[in-house]
Amino acid sequence: MTVTIDPWRITGQSQIDSYVARWAELAVVLVNTLAVERAQGRTRTVPAPLEPALEEWRAHHRPPRAAGQAGPLDAGLLGEAAAGLRPAFGPGPLAGVAELNALLLRQGAVPNLHAEPGRPPVLAFHAPGADRSGAMAADAGTALAMVIGVGQGERLATCQAQGCELVFFDTTRNASRRFCGLACQNRAKAAAYRARKGARRT
Predict the structure, then answer these.
(1) What does the alpha-carbon distance between residue 25 and residue 75 come to, in Å, rounded to a whole number?
(2) By three-state DSSP, how is residue 137 classified?
């Protein structure tokens, strides 16, 4: 999954776009799992189990080893990170800016190259000694900051279906996506149809 961000005119753009998309999707996983109480018309318990969602993300995006340290997750840190990431998916050009800046400062996010013997260097935005949870928070927050910083913040959105607060990273060409998935799109269409039908009867 990639997103083309027009102002970038450099060699290797597709790799950079893929890099940003990977960590932006991690931010989506963290927010939807740890900070969203209403999903697809239902109320749910928060936080939801994180490891299954992370496994699905890893299988799809294949994050580099330097950013996928082993070890237990820090539920408190990740819950705090999810709360800091969530406002970035709100409307408006300044949505989530203050919260993201605070998150990046807390995690000491700074660009650096991680290198392992026999492997090429990997760009990351967490300190080389960061634990698994801190690394995820720093890299996810930086990705959202990069999306917003190049004028593509509208791609960070919240589902518009009633009763759903799931967030998503919109990779459509014209940033026109409105729903988290097909289920909510169908629910919204059915609700609109019922509303039109009711209006005709009155």
Answers:
(1) 19
(2) helix
Separation CA 158–CA 89 (nearest Å): 6
Of 179, 155, 178, 114, give the one whose Cα is nearest residue 17: 155
- pLDDT above 70 for 176: yes
Burial category of 185 from C-beta neighbours within 10 Å (exposed 0-12, middle 13-18, buried 19 and up): middle
Q: 156: burial class by Cβ within 10 Å (0-12, 13-18, 19+)? A: buried
| Span 118-159, pLDDT tens digits | 888 888 899 878 899 999 999 999 999 999 999 999 999 999
Residue 202 and residue 191: Cα distance in Å, rounded?
17
Residue 124 pairs with which residues in a beta bridge? 112
The whole-model pTM stands at 0.85
In the chain, which ranges are E strands?
38-39, 42-43, 112-114, 122-124, 156-158, 167-169
Residues 137 and 131: their CA atoms lie apart, in Å, by: 10
Give yes or no for a contact between 135 and 69, defined as CB atoms under 8 angstroms apart: yes
CATH T-level fold of 13-201: Jann2411-like fold (1.10.3300)
